[in-house]
Structure formats: C-alpha cells, structure tokens
Give the backbone structure.
Amino acid sequence: MTPSDLSNTSRRLRHLTSLEHLPAAQILRLLDRAEALQQQWLRDRRKLDLLHGRTVVNLFFESSTRTRTSFDLAAKRLGADVINFDIANSSTSKGESLIDTLHTLEAMYCDAFVVRHKVNGTAEFLARHVRGPACVINAGDGNNAHPTQGLLDAYTIRRHRPDFSILRVLICGDILHSRVARSDIHALRTLGVGNLRVCAPANLLPAETELPGCEIVEDFDSALDGADVIIMLRLQKERMQQAQVPSEQAYYARYGLDARRLRLARPDCLVMHPGPLNREVEIASAVADSAQSCILEQVGNGVFVRMAVLTELLGV
Ligand code: CP
C-alpha cells in the first residue's frame, strides 16, 4: 500500500498498488470476501450484478495468461463491462503517453484500470494521476509488486493451513527479479507466518533490506527441512541483463524441486508456483503435477481474490 492507495475521505482502499504496509485486517477482509464470493459461485454458478454499469479496463503492457484472464473473468462474473485494451493497435504506438491514455479512457467513464508494466512504479504513477473516482490495480510492475498474486497465494495457503503462526514457508528461485516474491513476503509477514525462508543463488537474491523478516538459507536441501509450504519461482530471463545462471541444467541440479527434494519437506507440504512454469528448470513435472501441488488451485483462486479486490475498490 502506498499513500495514494487510501481514499482521502475514508480508510477504504482506493487503489491497490502494493501490499507493503497494508494492515492485516485489510488483507483478511479481502480474503474473507474472496471466500464468500467463492462459496456463492460454487453454490449458484451465476453471474452477480454487483458491478453492473461499471467498466474495468485491462491495460497490459506485458504479456499475461493468468492475471489478465482472471481479471477479465472476475469483472464479468460481477456484471461489469470489460475492455481488454489492445496496446499494439492503440495510439500508444503513435507515441501517446501513458497519462494521456489514462485520461482518455477516464473520459469514457471507465471505472477501474488493471495495469501491468515492465517499469517499477507504473501503477502507483497512474494512481497519482487519475482525475476522477477511478481506481488503479497493479497487475505486476517490473520486479516491484504483484499484489493480487500475493493475496491469492495467502488465500490458497489459508484454505489448507489456517494457522499461519505455526507455518514454515519457503520461497525459492529467482527472487531478485520476482515481484511475486516481494508481494508474497509482504502478505505472509503481515499475516504472521512463523518462519519465512528464502533460498536462491547469491546473484539472484536482492539485498537483505528487501527481504524483511526472512531467513536466508543458501543450500536448498537445508532450506526444505520441515517446510509446510514451498513457493517455487521461475527464472525470469527476460529481466536479466546477462546470463545469471551457468545453464538451466546446472540450476536445476542445485535449485530444482524434484521428488527427492520434496521428501525433505513435511509429508503434507503444499507446493505452489505463480506460473508460468519452466518444467525441469525450477520444478520437476512429477512434482508440479503431483497431489501436493496447488498450482492450478492458485489459478482458480485468483478469480475470486480479484473479484474481492474489484468489489472493495469500487465500493460495493
Ligand atoms: N502469475 C502470473 O502473473 O501469471 P501471468 O504472467 O500469466 O499473468
């Protein structure tokens, strides 16, 4: 949460650009709301009209399968109209600025902007420049934040392990380039996870100041000991200036989660991954597709978490 995330007139969440500093009560309220929406959907399988007459714009300047589709579905299941803004064929290609694009869409009475951009701080920048009541939701900015992924990961863990205080959660992989890791850390720390560990090659770890409250464990086998939840992360080659791992095979040998390594964690350990997967690079197919994997459940939960966020921000 940043200063522009809060409404001036109330403590209602105005935008969602980060989970940093978002109070536990606010996170829990969103998770509870997602739970209620999920129960209702599973019971009735009917669209709601909570956002009837509202328009949600997906502004994705970076590619996405899960986040974009689930925001699209979430908005439609709430009765909103959705614009999946076509960046490549928009006036952005003629040089129109981000702010002018925002104000142009605002002039058409769009109510919510879901923004993904490679530059850190883009969603926060737009949140500071909206002129009307529209809200901005960060769908991932550079390696800074992916707040709805952090929320859906917390939501998925809570459905299986409601008492966070006794949990050992391990986040492993390319943490340096991961906005998911940062948002997961903010959410899980705030919700009081007992032991939060991170594991990565030294050159894929950010400064310790960016890992507040985390135990850093270099050796993956040691890090797995007693874990209740493992969140594996993808190597984000698109954000690397140069090759930061010698080879994918060498990386897999040291940091890949395979069946042998999974046995080092607790027998009922949950395996998570935000996707997309690099199979046999950070995770073995035998693990990703195993009964312990919650990877597809995370995807499904994302729709209800995003429905919760949209209703919260749009004041329903
Ligand atoms: N987890 C996630 O953000 O996936 P997408 O890039 O497919 O949206």
